[in-house]
Amino acid sequence: MRRRGWLTLPLAGWLALAGSVSADESRAFPAPEPGSYALPPLGVAADGEVLQTDGRATTLRALRAGKVVLLAFSYAGCTDATEGCPLATAVFHRVGRMLADDTEARARLRVLTLSFDPLRDTPEAMARFAAGVARDGLDWHFLTTASPSALDPILADYGQALVRERDAEGRETGAIAHVLRVFLIDTTGRIRNEYSAAFLDPDLVVADVRTLLLEQPAP
Question: Residue 153, CB half-sphere, CA atoms under 13 Å: how many?
Answer without folding.
Answer: 11
